[in-house]
Write a structure and sequence with these properties.
Order of helices and strands of chain A: HHHHHHHHH
Chains: A mainly alpha (261), B mainly alpha (128), C alpha/beta (317)
Largest interface: A-C, 24 and 24 residues
Shape of chain A: globular
Helix content of chain A: over 70%
Number of helices of chain A: 9
Number of strands of chain C: 8
Largest sheet of chain C: 8 strands, mixed
Number of domains of chain A: 1
Number of strands of chain A: 0
Structural class of chain A: mainly alpha
Oligomer: heterotrimer
Order of helices and strands of chain C: HEEEEEEEEHHHHHHH
Strand content of chain C: 15-25%
Radius of gyration of chain C: 39 Å
Helix content of chain C: 55-70%
Strand content of chain A: under 5%
Strand order of the largest sheet of chain C: 7-1-4-3-2-6-5-8
């Protein structure tokens, strides 16, 4: 019994410690983000490369998923709304559910699956290969050169790709609202505009920014936890990705609470 | 510092590995840094390896790249740590000497740290 | 290669930024963010269902929203609503505000303006808002419907009980009608003899035959009515239902028996002039009167009991 309680205690202490370390690292990164001296040609080069690999390279796949997935969800949503006789709430459903909730969630899941895992592996490999030591030897701050561009890229990618996903979903909504409800363009835009509140847009983008920070920061942290052994790489990626998904869920819940306040 | 413990960064090509120091420390524009690196590689007639990564390089090429990267620091003092571990196919220090002499204008001093039993390799080279 | 990446990334950032900025710009423009906003004050006794930000709706379109809610010194809830300048034309001095709480969905304030040419509503005026709730409205509407359904059920029970009772009115009427027709058939020669009017006697006989036919028809119909008691309300109350058929037949019977009454009246007149047959004729007259009265009563009762015309749209669940 005592051992069991002790185990729970150890787990709780570990969890608190991990959360504290993550938040402290996040605060450090955020402060560094606003430090002008942190930016130089090398950092800019890495940032451009990261945006290319995270946002531009994924764009055809992302847009295809947005069109297919968005269309299916919009059709289901509209048919359900029609069946329930709640056509007057179509704007609230489209904006509240598809744009504010589903769009950031799908975007962050796609980016996490593709880029977070890549970042985690990349940092872990660099650690195992002693490349982090190379940076130290040449007096290159890993925080500035490695972490900052990746975290900024996370923010930019989630914000931009989420916006694109939302625009694609709303565009498919226009087409299907015309087919299902015989809604004109003007009526559709009026319905949507009446359902949009700037406070909700701000919350949505804040959520995207937070997603962007944590889906890159957590893999970096877990990548740095890798030891000098090659076998530590998959362990680091596994732990990192689990924490990324936990972070996504926590951020989603917090954003819903923020909306209710 | 040139050492196997300070490897080339695996996700950067040769050009960027060398240019990184100028980009980060001197905030040199990317194009300018790249031009500079290409010129330096040309001294060894190695422009063709500019876009290769560390894993694709021979020992000699890797040594040259590491040397150039170390020389990117202004008024550099180069320390070579156990060079025959990097150039493990070389029997003597002749290639090392050639590599250092080619870019001698880029550094102030050069120190080589090696095991005592490798002393002959350097003596033989100096004698010849 | 890296420069190619830089170009693509630049293009991506420019296009995405343009899309975001233009979308937000369009929203700002359409929502009239920089437009002048007018504030009006409304009052209501209870702040229930009221929230800041809830929409103010005119003809189904949101024209403003609730900016603030406060409780006055008198304990009345004051609602401050914001209306942008472009929608101010819908708010007039004769505008009526109502708080609408639909069964599903959030509450809203509905504005109704009788005359759009009326003068503008002054910002100092505090209008009281009416409250309408879908649930309360539905409960109010359901009460009379439930009362009517109860009455109809009682009526149907009465009808079926009457039809099944051998001592009931319908059965009495049938017996009376049978008796009457039997009498008529027995006394046909007497009539002819007493009246000595060939036409009247023929008319009387025709009426009697008709009455016999009607009796058979009533009997058949009553059987159908009995069966009908267990059928659905559609069959009972529909245009082609059984009860309307009974009603029509009985009305037809009344008309025909009234004709019979006239004929018998004629016989009476003639009989006053003829001696000896008066007693028979009076008895006949009484029987016919009694029958007509009973049938008329039945028709009236059926008319009263079954609400053919009163609730034409009523449908039992």
């Amino acid at each position: 019994m005592k051992t069991f309680v002790e185990k729970i205690g150890v787990a709780a202490i570990d969890m608190t410690g991990s959360l504290k370390a993550t938040l402290l690292f996040a605060i450090k990164v955020v402060f560094r983000m606003f430090d002008r001296n942190a930016y130089n040609s090398a950092v800019k080069m890495v940032l451009v490369e990261q945006i290319y690999f995270t946002s531009v390279q994924i764009l055809p796949l992302f847009l295809t998923i947005a069109v297919i997935f968005g269309s299916i969800l919009v059709i289901i949503l509209m048919l359900v709304v029609k069946e329930l006789g709640m056509v007057q709430y179509i704007g609230r459903f489209m904006i509240g559910f598809m744009v504010y909730e589903l769009s950031p969630f799908i975007t962050v899941i796609l980016i996490a699956l593709r880029s977070s895992s890549a970042i985690n592996t990349e940092i872990a490999v660099m650690k195992v290969n002693k490349e982090i030591r190379t940076l130290e030897a040449f007096h290159i701050d890993a925080m500035n050169y490695l972490f900052l561009p990746r975290i900024i890229n996370g923010i930019i990618s989630v914000v931009f790709l989420n916006s694109l996903f939302s625009i694609v979903v709303l565009a498919t909504g226009l087409i299907f609202s015309n087919f299902i409800f015989q809604m004109s363009f003007d009526t559709y835009t009026d319905v949507l505009i009446n359902s949009i509140y700037f406070s909700d847009i701000i919350i949505m983008y804040l959520k995207c920014i937070t997603y962007g920070v944590f889906i890159t920061l957590i893999p970096i942290m877990f990548g740095l936890n890798a030891t000098n052994e090659l076998t530590s790489i998959p362990v680091s990626v596994l732990n990192g990705m689990v924490r990324v998904f936990i972070a996504i869920v926590i951020i989603e819940v917090l954003s819903l609470i923020l909306k209710l306040i | 510092m040139i050492s196997l413990d300070i490897p080339l960064i695996s996700n950067l090509d040769v050009l960027n590995n060398i240019a990184l120091i100028k980009l980060y420390r001197d905030n040199l524009p990317k194009r300018q840094a790249e031009q500079l690196v290409l010129k330096l590689l040309n001294r060894y007639k190695l422009e063709d390896i500019a876009y290769k990564r560390s894993a694709d390089l021979t020992d000699e090429h890797r040594f040259c790249v590491m040397l150039l990267r170390a020389a990117m620091i202004n008024e550099a003092t180069i320390v070579i740590d156990r060079p025959f571990i990097i150039l493990h196919n070389s029997q003597d220090s002749s290639f090392m000497k050639y590599a250092l002499n080619t870019i001698d204008d880029l550094y102030n001093q050069c120190h080589i740290l090696d095991y005592i039993w490798n002393k002959d390799r350097y003596i033989k080279d100096n004698a010849s | 290669m890296p420069h190619k990446h830089a170009f693509k990334v630049g293009l991506f950032v420019i296009i995405a930024t343009f899309l975001i900025v233009s979308t937000i710009g369009y929203l700002v423009y359409k929502k009239g963010m920089f437009e002048k906003v007018y504030t009006y004050t409304l009052s209501v006794k209870s702040g229930e269902n009221l929230t800041t930000g809830m929409p103010v709706v005119f003809s189904g379109f949101t024209i403003g929203n609730v900016e603030d809610l406060e409780l006055s010194e008198e304990g009345i809830v004051l609602i401050k609503i914001k209306i942008p300048k472009r929608h101010i034309k819908w708010i007039r001095s004769d505008s009526v505000f109502a708080l609408d709480k639909p069964l599903i969905g959030s509450a809203k304030i509905i504005v109704q303006t009788k005359n759009l040419n009326s003068p503008e509503l002054s910002a100092d005026n505090i209008l009281e808002i009416a409250t309408s709730s879908d649930i309360n409205e539905m409960v109010k509407r359901i009460h009379p419907i439930l009362d009517t359904i109860t009455k109809i059920a009682t009526n149907i029970e009465n009808i079926t009980a009457d039809l099944s009772n051998p001592q009931g009115d319908v059965h009495k009427i049938l017996k009376n009608t049978q008796k009457l027709t039997a009498n008529f058939s027995e006394k046909s020669s007497l009539l002819e003899m007493a009246v000595s009017d060939q036409d009247s006697v023929v008319a009387l006989h025709a009426a009697m035959k008709n009455a016999r036919g009607i009796t058979v028809q009533i009997e058949n119909t009553l059987k159908k009515v009995n069966a009908m008691a267990v059928k659905t309300d559609e069959k009972l109350y529909g245009d082609e239902g059984l009860l309307p058929l009974v009603n029509n037949i009985l009305k037809d019977l009344v008309v025909k028996l009234q004709k019979l009454d006239a004929t018998v009246g004629n016989i009476n007149t003639i009989s006053r002039e003829a001696a000896g047959s008066a007693k028979d004729m009076e008895a006949l007259r009484e029987q016919i009167d009694a029958t007509i009265y009973a049938i008329q009563e039945l028709v009236d009762r059926l008319d009263n009991l079954v609400p053919f015309k009163k609730e034409p749209d009523m449908r039992l669940p």
